[in-house]
């Protein structure tokens, strides 16, 4: 891309959104969580507060800057840093449960650190010892990683024009990313880019690096406050220390794919939990019986009782599949081989498929059983369906069914990539 083309692309992006928020450098070090039990306890405490403002943030498309700062300062963004580097090294079961708890309260906040955890895992699997020590310590101290992964205008979502090349002895990064979830809140931007040979790498870039521009131009009808907008790189100078090979983690069996996807699965299960809890609360408080009935309360309606029972079964089944997937992912992480990684990938695909269905069903039944009053904007109950539908488009569930069926019917191992 020529310098003039890059300028035009950047200006086009800047006119489409709002200026990015200022994220000041950390003033204090984050809390360091020591084990799985503490991680769950902290997540539950934060979720209670995050839930209180979720509807208003969604309605106003307000970025949860203060909430994200509290989230990371509480230590939850560092829970996957391995124990040998000072972290809690929590299980995949715990990471999924933490994500579900937060997502039930506010699924935008629950999704924002997904790419942060993905890049922590990329460092664990492919980073040098020096890179691990440096970046893991920054994460333990409270620095957040942001995603600059997917582009628009390419043939598929995993084709990249963003690249870095050697010019006059300097490595220069150029390109533009959309769907950059987490970057507006991040201290370090992690860009996916090709080198001069076309091999895909991830590049860790400090937020304040000259040539990096952010735009708050995310206008989706759901997941409104994830800040998943545009990041542009114009001749950003980088060093070899900032670069980690991304392809290597898929060239052999590793936990990378199912690790990425279990977090997305947990977001959907969290939305399902949140919508079911909201349904019970709303129906108990406000739902009126159909006029053909002689009952006093809407929650006595036999059709409503049946519907809540049906949704509850599906949500509990998704919960169970999520825990099972976490256990199989922990096995694959400890002993990665073709068999264990395939089992983990299929298990995660199963919960992603069922969790997506459960989230949409629960969010639809919330409005159906709540009645006309439940559609009032002041309640913001439509956000559950909008969030579930929007987040489900991250990668198509229809392909989960395909790979699951091929695995059980034909014994075919699933492909290794970040969407399975």
TrEMBL record:
EC number: 1.-.-.-
Keyword entries, A-Z: Flavoprotein, Oxidoreductase
Domain called Acyl-CoA oxidase/dehydrogenase middle: residue spans: 149-236
Acyl-CoA dehydrogenase/oxidase N-terminal domain residues: 43-143
Uppermost EC category: oxidoreductase
Region (Disordered) residue spans: 1-26
Gene Ontology molecular-function annotations: oxidoreductase activity
Pfam families the UniProt entry points to: Acyl-CoA_dh_2, Acyl-CoA_dh_M, Acyl-CoA_dh_N
NCBIfam families for the chain: sulfur_SfnB
PANTHER family documented for this protein: FLAVIN-DEPENDENT MONOOXYGENASE, OXYGENASE SUBUNIT HSAA, MEDIUM-CHAIN SPECIFIC ACYL-COA DEHYDROGENASE, MITOCHONDRIAL-RELATED
Family of the protein in this entry: Belongs to the HpaH/HsaA monooxygenase family.
Protein name: SfnB family sulfur acquisition oxidoreductase
The organism's taxonomic lineage, starting at the top: Bacteria, Pseudomonadati, Pseudomonadota, Alphaproteobacteria, Hyphomicrobiales
């Amino acid at each position: 891309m020529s310098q003039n083309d890059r300028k035009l692309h950047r200006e086009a992006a800047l006119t489409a959104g709002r200026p990015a928020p200022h994220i000041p450098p950390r003033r204090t070090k984050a809390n360091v969580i020591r084990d799985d039990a503490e991680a769950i306890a902290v997540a539950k405490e934060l979720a209670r507060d995050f839930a209180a403002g979720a509807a208003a943030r969604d309605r106003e498309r307000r970025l949860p800057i203060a909430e994200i700062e509290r989230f990371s300062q509480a230590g939850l963004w560092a829970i996957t840093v391995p124990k040998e580097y000072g972290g809690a090294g929590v299980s995949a079961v715990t990471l999924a449960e933490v994500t579900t708890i937060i997502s039930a309260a506010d699924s935008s906040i629950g999704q924002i650190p997904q790419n942060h955890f993905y890049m922590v895992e990329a460092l664990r699997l492919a980073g040098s010892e020096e890179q691990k020590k440096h970046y893991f310590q920054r994460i333990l101290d409270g620095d957040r990683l942001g995603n600059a992964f997917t582009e628009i205008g390419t043939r598929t979502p995993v084709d990249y024009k963003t690249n870095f090349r050697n010019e006059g002895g300097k490595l220069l990064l150029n390109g533009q990313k959309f769907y950059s979830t987490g970057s507006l809140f991040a201290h370090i931007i992690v860009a996916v880019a090709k080198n001069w040979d076309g091999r895909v790498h991830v590049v860790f870039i400090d937020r304040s690096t000259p040539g990096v521009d952010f735009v708050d131009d995310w206008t989706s009808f759901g997941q409104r406050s994830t800040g998943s907008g545009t990041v542009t790189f114009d001749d950003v100078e980088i060093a070899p220390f900032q670069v980690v090979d991304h392809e290597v983690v898929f060239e052999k069996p590793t936990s990378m794919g199912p690790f990425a996807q279990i977090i997305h699965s947990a977001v959907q299960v969290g939305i399902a939990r949140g919508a079911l809890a909201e349904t019970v609360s709303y129906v108990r408080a406000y739902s009126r019986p159909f006029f053909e009935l002689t009952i006093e309360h809407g929650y006595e309606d036999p059709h409503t009782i049946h519907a809540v029972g049906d949704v509850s079964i599906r949500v509990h089944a998704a919960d169970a599949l999520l825990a099972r997937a976490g256990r199989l992912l922990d096995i694959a992480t400890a002993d990665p081989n073709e068999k264990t990684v395939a089992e983990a990938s299929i298990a995660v695909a199963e919960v992603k498929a069922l969790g997506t269905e459960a989230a949409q069903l629960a969010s639809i039944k919330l409005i159906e059983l709540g009645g006309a009053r439940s559609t009032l904007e002041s309640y913001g109950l439509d956000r559950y369906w909008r969030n579930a539908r929007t987040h489900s488009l991250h990668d198509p569930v229809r392909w989960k069914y395909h790979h699951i069926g091929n695995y059980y019917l034909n014994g075919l191992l699933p492909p290794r990539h970040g969407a399975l």
